[in-house]
């Protein structure tokens, strides 16, 4: 039996559309929605500690924002921060939770550009053995 809906959330308009859809799916199936902000920590020039702290602060801000949006929607919600590249991090989280589906937003890129550059939705489609729901932004 599956246990939840995983939604990748970064605060973008596409992520907000994905959150709304994930809440609908969670409500329809009576399942928890897990809001996940995933990021990869790459060594960069300068202070890696400061870079990590800034990413973690952004992640906390975004999952708090999403949790507030979800409040009052009649769905059990949890938020998590995954320190892993988004595609692999969301797949691992979905596997660990035996999630019904992974929901992410589409940035509105063309399929060709996304395939060439390797967007998170495209990577998820290749990596995940469970359904992936890619939600277009509301402005499309």
Using brief descriptors, characterize the structure shown.
alpha/beta, 140 residues, globular, 5-stranded parallel β-sheet, Rossmann fold
Task: Explain how this protein is built.
The chain has 140 residues and is α/β, with parallel strands linked by helices. It has a single domain, classed as HUPs (Rossmann fold). It is 48% helix and 18% strand. The chain is built from five helices and five strands, in the order E-H-E-H-E-H-E-H-H-E. A five-stranded parallel β-sheet has the order 3-2-1-4-5, with helices on both faces. Strand 1, helix 1 and strand 2 (33-38) form a beta-alpha-beta unit.
- Structural class assignment: alpha/beta
What is the CATH C level class, in words? Alpha Beta
Mean pLDDT value: 86
How large is the radius of gyration? 15 Å
Low-pLDDT regions: none
Shape call? globular
Q: Which second-level CATH architecture applies?
A: 3-Layer(aba) Sandwich
Order of helices and strands: EHEHEHEHHE
Question: In CATH terms, what is the fold-level topology?
Answer: Rossmann fold
Helix content: 40-55%
> How do the strands line up in the largest sheet?
3-2-1-4-5
Number of distinct helices = 5
Largest sheet: number of strands, sense, barrel closure: 5 strands, parallel
- The N- to C-terminal Cα distance equals 35 Å
Number of strands: 5
Strand content: 15-25%
Total domains: 1
Give the CATH superfamily: HUPs
What's the short version?
This protein has helices spanning 13-29, 48-70, 86-97, 111-117, 120-127, and strands at 5-8, 33-38, 77-82, 101-105, 132-135. It has 140 residues and is an alpha/beta fold. The chain has a single domain (5-135), classed as 3-Layer(aba) Sandwich (Rossmann fold).
């Amino acid at each position: 039996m599956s246990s939840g809906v995983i939604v990748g959330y970064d605060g973008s308009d596409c992520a907000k559309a994905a959150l709304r859809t994930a809440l609908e799916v969670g409500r329809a199936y009576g399942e928890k929605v897990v809001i996940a902000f995933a990021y990869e920590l790459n060594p960069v020039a300068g202070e890696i500690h400061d870079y990590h702290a800034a990413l973690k602060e952004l992640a906390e801000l975004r999952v708090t924002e999403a949790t507030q949006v979800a409040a009052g929607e009649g769905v059990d919600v949890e938020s998590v921060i995954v320190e892993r590249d988004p595609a692999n991090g969301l797949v691992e989280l979905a596997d660990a939770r035996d999630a019904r589906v992974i929901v992410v937003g589409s940035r509105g890129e063309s399929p060709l550009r996304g395939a060439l550059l390797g967007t998170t939705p495209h990577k998820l489609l290749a990596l995940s053995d469970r359904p992936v729901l890619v939600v277009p932004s509301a402005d499309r």
